[in-house]
Amino acid sequence: MNNQALYNYILGVTDNSLILAQRLGELCGHGPSLETDIAITNISLDLLGQCRSYYQYAAKIKGGDTTEDSIAMLRTEREYVNVLLVEQPNEHFGFVIARQFLFDVFHLLQMQELQNSKDETLASIAAKNIKETLYHRRFSSDWVKRLGDGTEQSHAKMQEAIDALWRYTNELFEITEDDQKMIDAGIGVDVSKFKETYYKQVAEVLEEATLKVPENKYFQTGGKKGIHTEHLGYLLTDLQYMQRTYPNMKW
Amino acid sequence: MSEKEIKNLEAIFEQRIANEEKIEPKDWMPEKYRQTHIRQISQHAHSEVVGMLPEGNWVTRAPSLRRKAALLAKIQDEAGHGLYLYSACETLGISRDELYDQLHSGKAKYSSIFNYPTLTWADIGAIGWLVDGAAIINQVPLCNTSFGPYARAMVRVCKEESFHQRQGYEIMLTLCKGTPEQKAMAQDALNRWWWPSLMMFGPTDAESVHTEQSMKWKLKRKTNDELRQQFIDQTVPQADILGITVPDPDLKWNEERGHYDFGEINWDEFWQVVKGQGPCNRERMKARVSAWERGEWVRDAALAYAEKNAKKNIKKAM
Q1: Low-confidence ranges of chain B (pLDDT < 70)
Q2: Which of A47, A225, B22, B295 has its CA 20 to 30 A from that of A180?
């Protein structure tokens, strides 16, 4: 088996969760209500827990003195392979919800496939994640509906966020060379297979929320090759601060 | 109701408390009892919520994934404590929005400790160890307080707080076993958090205005000074195990008293922070008020959506 490809594949799955967890972590204590604070913190915590399982596995594959933390916190910006969607900032609560929703629909479909992976570790982590991811998807869908079909103001803000983030959705379905190797080996998920399902499921929720499905067909890309938006560097500055300032210490 | 009837009710009420019976929201209670409980429970709830901010300050910078997850879980617990304390308070006939108004207008107080900044990672350890440690000492007696909903909320809160405290101490222990830089970070945190933690027990007994009444209603079982002494006696040996020094040159074991003697607390600082002059009072309130204001459209939308759906459901049912 090609260990490097497997390692890269795991990062491709997991960096999304890490970066999104980090974004959600910024919101602790700053949300619109105590209930949403609890929910957002909870989602951040779930995603972080998922990351730890995946990165621990990746660290084992890589060997040497690689750890979950060195993978999560000591790569350069160009080495992070998360999609652009998850690194987008918390402009307002509509963006938080839109970003979450557009990711959750994908994430659930991805985990549902990944639980059938020939790689037992990946399959068992995915199976464990599904319950949490189902909850995330329900939470974000419910809020898309609330905000979309709430007041005139919330409708406008929700539409604004969906429109702004739409250009990052297509990248979810890109397949890198290493992804392809893993798909061929029966380990990775062929995400292109559920692209149509994804857009259909997204559209269903948007319609129920009285929101328009954006017509924009020009999409941004680059995250999976490590070419990110300007936002990621700042996010990593926080994420890596301690590990960079105090190298090789135990915390 | 005649004055005599009220006196009679009050006598029965005081007797019930003396008998260790729980007072429930629908029971008759003197107005002063209600107001005192609203004040104390809401102050406690506000402290949980404002307390999320200094810790939230380190979520994005936590040094490892494990620590980040533990910190998030802790903050989530605190939000949960806030929720059930607000609910307990609401049973006394005040709404959560009114309670928030009191916080945002500065009418209601929250624990002054959260007006101090978290400057290094060690501060997260120190808060768990010292601040949660002090909170537990204040709160354990409340598990037996007379007002039922508060007492029940406190049972759960105390369980989680004691977990947080162990976690905080473990952060300190890891730092103190680490490199000299890490140990210095731990010492620095102790230096900054020690005195404010002692202030968490409130003014000295001679200065405390609520103590007598609160003792009668079992909102307090020990005086501020007694609790403070208990905290010091419990914490100093823990600092010894860590190998760091409590920043009080007057601290000394008193064989005769069976307690530690300690130096004078800077009460001027205490009152200044209570009055709003602490290092972060302005920032904490600004963060809460701005979260509330920025969230208004979200809460409005949720309400509008719920109303629309309720109407739809009624139509369906007809």
Answers
A1: none
A2: A47
Residues A49-75: tens digit of each pLDDT = 999 999 999 999 999 999 999 999 999
Structure token pair of residue B244: 């760091």
Q: Does B64 touch chain A (CB under 8 A)?
A: yes
Number of domains chain A is built from: 1
Neighbours of A173 (CB within 10 A): 18
B97 touches chain A (CB under 8 A): no
- What is the pTM assigned to this prediction? 0.96
Assess: ipTM above 0.95: yes
Assess if residue A60 is contained within a domain.
yes
Contacts of B68 in chain A (CB under 8 A): 25, 48
For residue A168, tell me if it sits in a domain: yes
From the list B56, B72, B308, the residue facing A48 with the nearest CB is B72
Any domain includes A105: yes
How far apart, in whole angstroms, are the C-alpha atoms of residue B262 and residue A66?
48
A82: domain range?
3-245
Instruction: Out of A28, A44, A146, name the one closest to residue B52 (CB).
Output: A28
Q: What is the CATH number of the domain that holds A119?
A: 1.20.1260.10
Check CB contact under 8 Å for B295 and A31.
Answer: yes
